[in-house]
Amino acid sequence: MMAAASTYRVLLVEDSPADAELVNDMLEESREPALDLTRVERLAAALQALSRERFDAVLLDLGLPDSQGLSTLRRFQEETGPVAVVVLTGQEDVELGTRAIQLGAQDFLPKAELTPALIGRTLRYAIERQRSASELRLMAAAFESGQAILITDVRGRIQRVNDAFTRITGYTEAEVVGRNPNLLQSGEHDRAFYDRLWGELRVHDHWEGEIWNRRKNGYTYPEWESITAVRNEWGQVEHYVAVFHEISEQKRLEAELEREASTDRLTGTCNRLRFDTELDNALARFHRYGTQTALIMFDMDHFKWFNDTRGHDTGDRVLREVTDRVAAAIREPDTLARWGGEEFILILPETDADGARELAERLRRAVGDTPVADAGHVTISLGVTRMGTGDDADSLLKRLDNALYRAKELGRNTVCYLEPETDLEDRAC
C-alpha cells in the first residue's frame, strides 16, 4: 500500500502469513482514510521498527514466535513510547482481549470477526483515543508546570486556571471562573495597547509580549504572556489560552544592569555614556520646544595635590564627598555626570542663565564652607553656560570647558559664566 499525505501508518505484528494477508485485504477494502501497513513477524522486529520509525497504531498478535500472551503486550509497552495498540485475538480469546484493554491496549479484534469496516473503524478510533489521551496528559503536565495558564471561551469568560495562576495573581479558580480576564488589568496600558493585542490575535491567532497586570492584593507586576486562539474543526475560535510567567526578578536585574552600565562606580553619578545620551535629549528638547537649559562644569581645585600627598584613597573620598554635596543641592530632573577624572557636568533643564549662576554659587559654598574628613577644606571651580540657538554638543561643551578654564585663571574657587556667542557677544564672569 502506498502512503499518502493523510495516511495513518500501521505496524502489523503477525507471524501467520494467512492472517497477515487477511488483515491487509481488509484494510485495502476499508473506507477509512488511507492506511499504510508495515508487517513484521516477531516482537523483537516490532520493537526495532518502532525505534527507527513513527507509527500511528500497532495491530499486535499475542501469539508470536518470540513472545506469548499478555507478556507480549507488557514488554511492548515497557519498551515503546505512546502508540495506539489494538490486540488481535483468536475466537476463543475474548477474555484475553478484555484483559489486554485493562493493561492499556486501546481495543481488541477477534480475527474470525474481522470486516473491512470494523478493522478500519477500530484503528481510527484507537488512534484518536490515543492522541486525545496524549493531549490530556500534556495538558495535565502543563497545568502542573510553573507557568500560569488561563483558558477562556470565545467571549472571554474564564473557564480554567491552574495553581500557578493562583500563586502569581492571588485569585483562586473559584474566584475567577465566569469572569473576564480584564479584572487583572493594572491601568499601565492604554486602550491602544489592547486594540493592538486583539488585532494581532484576530489576524495571527497568537500574541506574545510583556504586560503589566494587577494582583488581588492591588500590587502590579510584569509578566511575559503568550495568548493563542484555539479553533475547532470548522475553523471557528472556541477558546483562548493564555500562558504567562512573572518577570519581576528579570526586570529588576535588567534595571540593575542598566544602572551599572550608566553609572560611575566611584561616585554613583552618571557616567560619560549616560551623559552623552542625556545631553543629546536635552539639546533635542531645546531646539524643538525652546526649553531653557543650562549646564555647569566643575572640578576640584588642586586635586592632584590631594592624590599625591594624601593618597588615592583620600582622593577618592574627596570625590565622593564633593559629589554627594552637589547631588544633595540639585533637583530630581537635573543630571549630574562624571566627565572625567575630577571633572563633573550638570545638565539643568528649565533653568535660565541667572538660575544657573545662582546654583553654581550655592554649590561652590556647599563644597568649600565645610571641611572634608581627612582632607580639610576643598574648593571647586565652576564654568556655566546656557544652550543657544546655534549650539550642538561640541560647541556647547567647548564653551563650557572655556568657562571652567576662565574660572581657574581667575584664581579658582570661583564661578565663570559664558553667554552663547550666537545670542550675545558679551562674555562675563
Question: Strands, helices and their partners?
Answer:
Blueprint: E1 8-13, H1 17-29, E2 35-40, H2 43-52, E3 57-61, E4 63-64, E5 67-68, H3 70-79, E6 84-89, H4 94-102, E7 107-110, H5 116-143, E8 148-153, E9 158-161, H6 163-169, H7 173-176, H8 191-204, E10 206-214, E11 220-231, E12 237-246, H9 248-262, H10 272-289, E13 293-300, H11 303-310, H12 312-329, E14 335-340, E15 343-349, H13 353-368, E16 380-386, H14 393-409, E17 415-417
Parallel strand pairs: 1-2, 1-3, 3-6, 6-7, 16-17
Antiparallel strand pairs: 4-5, 8-9, 8-12, 10-11, 11-12, 13-15, 13-16, 14-15
Helix pairs in contact: 1-5, 11-12, 12-13
In words, what does this structure look like?
This protein has 429 residues and is of the alpha/beta class. Helix content is 44%, strand content 24%. The chain folds into three domains: 8-142, 3-Layer(aba) Sandwich (Rossmann fold), CATH 3.40.50; 148-251, PAS domain (Beta-Lactamase), CATH 3.30.450.20; 263-417, Alpha-Beta Plaits (2-Layer Sandwich). The chain has 14 helices and 17 strands. The strands form four sheets. Strands 2-1-3-6-7 form a five-stranded parallel β-sheet, sandwiched between helices. The chain has a five-stranded antiparallel β-sheet with strand order 9-8-12-11-10, with helices on both faces. Strands 14-15-13-16-17 form a five-stranded mixed β-sheet, sandwiched between helices. α14 links the parallel β16 (380-386) and β17. α11 packs across α12 (312-329). InterPro entries: CheY-like_superfamily, DGC-Regulatory_Protein, GGDEF_dom, Nucleotide_cyclase, PAC, PAS, PAS-assoc_C, PAS-like_dom_sf. It comes from Thiohalospira halophila DSM 15071. One of its GO terms (molecular function) is catalytic activity.
